[in-house]
Amino acid sequence: TMYSAQYKNQPNKDWPDKVVSVCEAVRTVLEVTEDNNNNNLVPILATLVRQGNMLEQALQRIQKLRDCGRQNECDNGLRYILYSVDVNLLFNIALGTYDFDLVLMVAEKSQKDPKEYLPILNAYKAMPSDYMKYSIDKDLKRYDSALSHIAKCPDNFEECLKLIQDQRLFKQGMLLFPKGSDNYKSVCKIYGEYLDSKRYYLEASYLFEQAGDYESAVRTSERACSWERAGNLARRAGWSRDQLDQLFKDLAAKLEEMDRGMESALIWKEWLQDAEESIAVLARTKCWSECLRQVRQLGRDDLLETHLLPALQDRKQILQSTISANIDKINEQVKRLEAIRAERSTRMLQQHQDDQEDMEVDGRNLDDADLFSDTTSVGGGGSVATSAARSKSTLATRTSGRSKSGKGRRKQER
User: Fold this and answer.
1) What is the pTM of this model?
2) Crossing angle for the helix pair 129-139 and 143-150, nearest 10 degrees?
């Protein structure tokens, strides 16, 4: 379900489809209660048809009835299936059973034109058994089954390879032939070529090795930067000394580019027998401790002056320039932050002053209202006082409204 990730500790149950469960339950009961007259044949066929993927089993039931000589029941069952299922689909399923009698029976009951299916069936019948099954499965797009049949046809191995390559059935193909056989090696080779095209270089190298193609195995191992494997395969392939040296140099250069200096130095020291270049690689890739250890092991203090110290000086300058650039960048950002804070403080101070002015204006308006109420109360008594209080409240409300509108106006101006 959509919330299954929230309940990782609970086992995930695969609930069966309701239609499948009901059909299986009904079919079980019908099969138990079925008598010799096959009164339950149509309901049983209905459950098989409703499940969708059980049409072949339905045809097999009809085929058994035909073999037992119950032609009338066979016709009734087949008539029901043809009424419920598309004719072409049922014809293909019957064809997939490799039983041409059943295919003809379905074709005849479906009123298909014999000119459509007879030439096809005759062409299949003229083929050897395994090749016929391969051809039928291929036409029905059942490629796994087609591969299992074409693999039994030694004279059609090229066609088998093409099927494996077109449908990417490499793993299935490897299981169909004895390990170490020529056919097995051929499948491994095309599988390696496929993985090489997808840039799975190390996996392709193993498959080329299984195929006995050491040249391709070395090439893909080199692309995968699996330097130990590449060197071992090159020696097994019988490469000359010059070829090996060139391979080792290419591997060392590629490892140095990938900042794998320790491995590159190991190739120079042990495979190419060049200790000085090994120290130079360690210095260029900033492996200072190992570089110093090898210098002391060789007893060549002059290499400190020619390789290690210049590399340290270059590294020092790079770090100094990087630190200086970072400091300048931080100072610039700090200045910008200070300017923003100062601007914000000024804006907040101005807003506070505006609020104070509004409050002073509101206070003066209220004082005037008190003065008016005292003046009018002399002639009017209690009713005048009530009127004054009401006018005071109204004035305060109007003053507050003017204050708010003034604030909004100043805010828009800013």
Assistant:
1) 0.69
2) 160
